[in-house]
């Protein structure tokens, strides 16, 4: 591979936008990091299980971590009814997305709007990227449109986020089955990103229902499990795919703390369930309160949801002045929407109060004519 080709790939790639506080921005505004309530990141505000802290106390920082993550892989395999050679842990799901892109051999198809790191990773790898945009007012993917696009473009890899980020829309088993069958028929690989599936109360078992033929399942332990600061995700796939992806993964990719924390977090099912239940209840309360202010929310299956506010950039700026951070969805092609992730009821009350203040002051506006996904 020539140096010029590498330069072309890098120069043509645009970094993906992400949620979370921008420390430089906060400092310019004179806001301390710990003063901001972050509704922009789809995380668990109740934090990790207490078992995680206990497990990390026994981790030695003077030794290299297990480069093969044997104990963690065994725990993840057992939790999913698989063998350890079906599992590849990584330094967050984002690293694993980049590994898939590096290993891909042809064009890529992405169901959009969705997580921007798919495109970023594929462009860095020099791959041709096509997107199929959701056309529903609720940003639900059309399985028929996706199926036709796969037949037409014959991609080597299809990225499908389910439930999707940022919409929270969740495809049923039968719908994903059609997409998988179609991708297999053209010799492609379906990457089913289930980073947020733990938030879904009525989720279906993708491993048991779909198997792993022609499929890579991508999951995260940083969201509901509360391990975002440690970075931990994993892949479930056929052993040959796991081996192939592991060859392009840097050694010691998953640190010792993350390995110990992952095992401990999975063991505390009570914490996971109580967090999920509390966040889904709070999300429903937030949706109702925001709709009572005159805004429109989009249906979701997760603890985060989209709100049409008229001007997302302006709303984010206004709420940040209240020390509240929401996600401006312009980077998703949704300049009229913000994304809000549920936090505690006390935090939610502050957000509603601030949004009500902005609404009555005339600083915010709702553009009822602007369709979701439309770009100016």
Characteristic key phrases:
disordered C terminus; 40% helix; alpha/beta
Summarize the structure in words.
Helix content is 40%, strand content 14%. The protein is α/β, with parallel strands linked by helices and 376 residues long. The strands form three sheets. A seven-stranded mixed β-sheet has the order 2-8-7-6-5-3-4, sandwiched between helices. Strands 9-10-13-12 form a four-stranded antiparallel β-sheet, covered by helices on one side. A two-stranded parallel sheet has the order 1-11. Helix 5 runs parallel beside helix 6 and helix 12 runs parallel beside helix 14.
Order of helices and strands: HHEHHEHEHEHEHEHEEHHHEEHEEEH
Specify the biggest β-sheet.
7 strands, mixed
Strands of the biggest beta sheet: in what spatial order? 2-8-7-6-5-3-4
How helical, in percent, are the residues?
40-55%
Shape: globular
Question: What separation lies between the terminal Cα atoms?
Answer: 39 Å
Structural class based on helices, strands and sheet pairing: alpha/beta
| Rg | 21 Å
Number of helices: 14
